[in-house]
Amino acid sequence: VFLFNSSSWFDSCLFAHNFLPTYSFYSGFGSGAIWLRNSPAKITNSTFFGNETGWDFPPGDPGATSLLCTQSNATISNCIFAFDGTTLFDPGYGIPRMPAINTTLGDTVGPTITCTNIYGNMDLGGDWVGEIASQFGKNGNIRRNPYFCDTTNYDFHLAPNSPCMADSTGCGLMGAFDMNPTCPPGNCCIGRTGNLDCDPDDRVDISDLSAIIMCLFIYPSSCGQHCCPGEENTDGDPYGDVDISDLSALIDYLYISFTPTAWCQ
């Protein structure tokens, strides 16, 4: 969605698996889901999942995976931004990945965020960063795995133990969908982490290594979509982020020191 010199209100919306391609005219200048230019907006009770954008090219021109504000005041409340990604990034050329929410360089206005969960966006610090960093931990803003029911089949209802449930936050429901009582609890990981392919024998092997490589470098939005996302956190990061240290922990366990991966949280 691209808005210019207008105003809008997005309520109870789902933006999932939208992609702004690399090398498009607007690549590095827009967003995979919403780009606001001189356009105040209100975004409430909505879920953003697995949105992607091409790299920041030329370097320094901002983009975002889900929401880019260009001289636009956005008010965001009771939303979830989770498991976004940037494809084909190349830090060797100074081309970084981009965050879920971003503002244009030099902007004096930007989003005001309350009661929102921004989590697992596969960038170089892609959650509460940049202009919105100071809002993390305030006004009900959190950074925790939302525990969706079944994203593979586009079921974005919440598992019974989701931190985004109305009775978990004090903010009311976060996101566009309430709990699905038939969903298994979100924390399905038992024992040690690393079983990304949910082998029935809980065996960690090269197929799990392939899955985490796919998540980090090839198809970022596959992160968080494995049958048990908690298995991805092999280094025991308290926020459950999936990053290069998880890959290192898995390689170390399989081929180097054989040190077991972290316990499930």
Give the helices and strands, then pairings:
Elements: E1 2-4, E2 8-11, E3 14-16, E4 19-20, E5 34-37, E6 41-44, E7 47-49, E8 52-53, E9 67-70, E10 74-77, E11 80-82, E12 85-86, E13 101-103, E14 111-114, E15 117-119, E16 148-150, E17 155-158, H1 166-169, H2 206-218, H3 244-256
Parallel strand pairs: 1-5, 2-6, 3-7, 4-8, 5-9, 6-10, 7-11, 8-12, 9-13, 10-14, 11-15
Antiparallel strand pairs: 16-17
Q: What portion of the residues fall into strands of 2 or more residues?
A: 15-25%
- The span between the termini is 37 Å
As laid out across the biggest beta sheet, the strand order is 1-5-9-13
- Shape type: globular
Rg calculated over all Cα atoms? 18 Å
Give the tally of β-strands.
Answer: 17
* Count of runs of 4 or more consecutive helical residues: 3
Overall average residue pLDDT: 82
Give an overview in words.
By secondary structure, the chain is α/β, with parallel strands linked by helices. It contains 3 helices and 17 strands. The strands form 5 sheets. A 4-stranded parallel sheet has the order 1-5-9-13, with no helix packed on it. A hairpin with a 4-residue loop joins strand 16 (148-150) and strand 17. The chain is globular and about 55 Å long. It starts with a strand and ends in a 9-residue tail after the last helix.
List keywords for this structure.
single chain; four-stranded parallel β-sheet; 3 helices; 11% helix; 265 residues; alpha/beta; 17 strands
